[in-house]
């Protein structure tokens, strides 16, 4: 297949912000595509070469790209560099440079999708000495034969800035529309949720049909998309929702891990965002290896930092030190040892347990480990009385947890991969304010600082995620709760996401000074939720021409780097919080 055909689709996708139109464009293209190319098409459209959980990522430095463009076009690097400063987008730079040069050079062979993919793969995999040269060579090789418009997308993907805004759910909708129709979408989604590999799902659907997808099972090595919890603010509501009785577990405040242990006892750890984080937690890996009596398992748990002197659990931030490369890992492990609390078992000895009820999974979990100092089972109790839940909640707080996680024990209490639902309900600490819970918001813009904040951001424009529309809707300007170090660090943290204009998936009535790709998620606590004509969160849903806004928002100090922007608090969740708040006032 020619790369040009895919680029035509990119152009069409870029010209719309409507999710429906995007789905339509992709579905039409998928229908025509060769099944053997579909996998690559799906990855490339999302700016990737592999599923998310593969460690190899594209994202070479702009400098290397500029060198490759200079090498191919003969234009001086400095001129290209100046153009990049002006344009901001490496794609536009490549297109402009080649538009001028290519009118006369027509000696090129049309690029195939396979060739582009192959070169990009070699670029992503190149390591060690000589890798820079190899990367430039591979890039120059395809740029030489690329048309200006093709070079635009090559430049974007190779620098990790594809940004077509095609969400996983849009690809799933398009696959359903192209091959089976809406009724079977669930089968496709389920296959994705247990393999986390859209390319694989697309290829199987195209070449073997929906029946083959139905037969897909979880497998060790392929992360399963995390099951998520809804929230309620009282034990009464929780018990009522759960049919009067359910399991309650401590809700640990740490980092979620999904551990895959294969038949050789080789262990891989995945984060909640399905990144391979095995290398960050060698101590967890060896503790798990010691504790496991079974092989071939997939289990989930929370890694919590503990105080080396008192053995007490510490706040989550202490373990996030591991993520920064600045820290020496062995020092971090010594200063902030972690303890793992396991709470689920999704696969054991060849049996996929994701369709089994919760208590069966818990039994499997208890069977496959010998708990140790560092690997433990989550505290659990099956309760049916409000007073008992309150007491257990107090104990959880006393032990340094965030609250409780209620889990359904009904026949239908399966592991709902990739879904947020009421089979799990979180019950967190009440804060002394009208807004009883924190929210996780996405940074979409920023305002220049004044006075003492001159030179840094004065405030950030924060948004909720609208999961129906796949858009980000503003809900507040966040200006408090920052210490000086955070204020100073924010510009460089946000630099990789900086855009020339508002991101197509953002809905804002405010004109920010800077715009960002929705990426960074921050935990925020406000005093209350109000109606406001300036913000777009759930606009006109409660009242015509008004959205929801958070008053007096404060950053809690917690960056939710474990959350994807599409896992932020949703606009509908905010509506529910607003309604609950109203109910409280009425009472
Ligand atoms: P939140 O991040 O506030 O949406 O809460 C959900 C998170 O709580 C999960 O993703 C887990 O990382 C964490 N968690 C802590 N303890 C448990 C538990 N016992 N069961 C399930 N999840 C838990």
- Put simply, the count of helices is 21
- Low-confidence region ranges: none
Could you name the CATH topology of the largest domain? D-amino Acid Aminotransferase, Chain A, domain 1
User: What is the CATH class name of the largest domain?
Assistant: Alpha Beta
Count of individual domains = 3
Radius of gyration: 25 Å
Q: Average pLDDT across residues? A: 91
Instruction: Please bin the fraction of helical residues.
Output: 25-40%
Distance between the termini: 64 Å
The CATH architecture of the largest domain: 2-Layer Sandwich
The CATH superfamily name of the largest domain is DNA ligase/mRNA capping enzyme
What kind of sheet is the major sheet?
8 strands, mixed
Q: Which ligands occur here?
A: adenosine monophosphate
Estimated share of beta-strand residues: 15-25%
Structural class: alpha+beta
What's the shape?
A: globular
Number of strands: 21
Provide tags for this entry:
21 helices, OB fold (Dihydrolipoamide Acetyltransferase, E2P), 6-stranded mixed beta sheet, DNA ligase i, domain 1, 3 domains, 8-stranded mixed beta sheet, 20% strand, 587 residues, 21 strands, binds adenosine monophosphate, 39% helix, D-amino Acid Aminotransferase, Chain A, domain 1, alpha+beta
Question: How do the strands and helices of this protein lay out in sequence?
Answer:
Blueprint lengths: L2 H12 L4 H14 L2 H11 L16 H12 L3 H11 L2 H13 L10 H13 L5 H15 L2 H11 L9 H12 L5 H11 L2 H11 L1 H5 L13 E4 L3 H7 L4 E6 L3 E7 L5 E4 L11 H10 L5 E9 L11 H4 L8 H7 L2 E11 L2 E2 L5 H11 L6 E3 L2 E4 L2 H13 L4 E5 L12 E9 L10 E10 L8 E10 L4 E8 L5 H11 L3 E2 L6 E2 L6 E3 L4 E5 L2 E5 L14 E5 L2 E6 L11 H16 L1
Parallel strand pairs: 1-11, 6-8, 14-16
Antiparallel strand pairs: 2-9, 2-10, 3-4, 3-5, 5-6, 6-7, 10-11, 12-13, 12-17, 12-18, 13-14, 15-17, 18-21, 19-20
Helix pairs in contact: 1-2, 2-10, 3-12, 4-6, 4-8, 5-6, 6-9, 7-8, 10-11, 10-12, 11-12
The structure holds adenosine monophosphate.
The site of adenosine monophosphate has 13 residues, from strand 2.
